[in-house]
């Protein structure tokens, strides 16, 4: 009952265009919500196979595809003009889930997003927020970037190795809990990255977190 109520709420925020957004919200970054809502619909459709759910999921997925900008990423609004790494990660996670559920996702969309993420990687192995005005690496978005690459089917290579080694500099500790920005956001992605990586990465990270 609780899950069905949550599903009904998300479905109720879905517009004819496929955009999922709480209409009264003043959030300046609704594509974050759209990405996570699309991920949620994909997971729900995978469990229920309800026809109406597939239609809404297909529209939400199509909106992500058509709003990808020329650099290969996405930004706060459903427009093709700008991009940043964290919003791009949300959309790529949603696209992987939609594809897993049987909804068509163009290979070119995924390939362009992968290239965008790779170009955001800094020499230290971490990832910057944007390609323009490239800034320093940061743990939370670097963890997110690695998981996005895994979600796109990139399971190895120099970018993954360097990214994992960067993350290993920031193990979960009581001190880090009070000091790191976006701690839970970072750990949400970091534990998935370490699960994919297996080996010493997983064996050291999982007991710590």
Write a structural description.
The protein is an all-alpha fold and 209 residues long. The chain is 62% helix and 0% strand. It has helices at residues 2-12, 30-48, 51-66, 85-100, 107-119, 139-151, 158-167, 174-179, 183-197, 199-208. It is globular.
Short description:
With 209 residues, this protein is mostly helical. The protein has helices spanning 2-12, 30-48, 51-66, 85-100, 107-119, 139-151, 158-167, 174-179, 183-197, 199-208. α6 runs antiparallel to α7 and α9 packs antiparallel against α10.
What's the rounded overall pLDDT mean? 94
Q: Based on CA inertia axes, which overall geometry fits?
A: globular
Distance between the termini: 31 Å
Order of helices and strands: HHHHHHHHHH
Query: How much helical structure, as a percent, in the residues?
Result: 55-70%
Query: Cα-atom Rg, whole angstroms?
Result: 17 Å
Q: Helices and strands: which structural class?
A: mainly alpha
Q: Main β-sheet, in a few words?
A: none
Which band does the percent of strand residues land in? Answer: under 5%
Tally of DSSP helical segments: 10
How are the secondary structure elements laid out?
Blueprint: H1 2-12, H2 30-48, H3 51-66, H4 85-100, H5 107-119, H6 139-151, H7 158-167, H8 174-179, H9 183-197, H10 199-208
What descriptors fit this protein?
209 residues, mainly alpha, globular
């Amino acid at each position: 009952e609780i899950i069905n109520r949550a599903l009904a709420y998300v479905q109720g925020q879905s517009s004819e265009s496929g955009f999922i957004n709480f209409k009264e919200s003043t959030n300046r970054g609704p594509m974050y919500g759209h990405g996570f809502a699309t991920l949620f619909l994909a997971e729900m459709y995978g469990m229920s196979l309800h026809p109406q759910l597939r239609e809404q999921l297909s529209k939400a997925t199509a909106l992500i595809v058509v709003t990808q900008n020329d650099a290969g990423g996405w930004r706060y609004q459903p427009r093709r003009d700008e991009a940043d790494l964290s919003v791009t990660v949300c959309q790529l996670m949603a696209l992987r889930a939609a594809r897993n559920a049987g909804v068509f996702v163009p290979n070119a969309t995924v390939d362009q997003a992968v290239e965008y993420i790779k170009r955001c990687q800094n020499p230290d192995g971490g990832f910057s927020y944007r390609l323009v005005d490239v800034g320093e690496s940061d743990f939370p978005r670097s963890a997110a970037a690695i998981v996005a690459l895994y979600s796109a089917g990139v399971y190895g290579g120099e970018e993954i190795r360097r990214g994992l080694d960067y993350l290993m500099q920031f193990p979960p500790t009581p001190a880090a809990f009070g000091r790191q920005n976006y701690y839970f956001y970072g750990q949400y992605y970091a534990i998935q990255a370490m699960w994919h990586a297996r080996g010493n990465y997983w064996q050291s990270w999982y007991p710590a977190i």
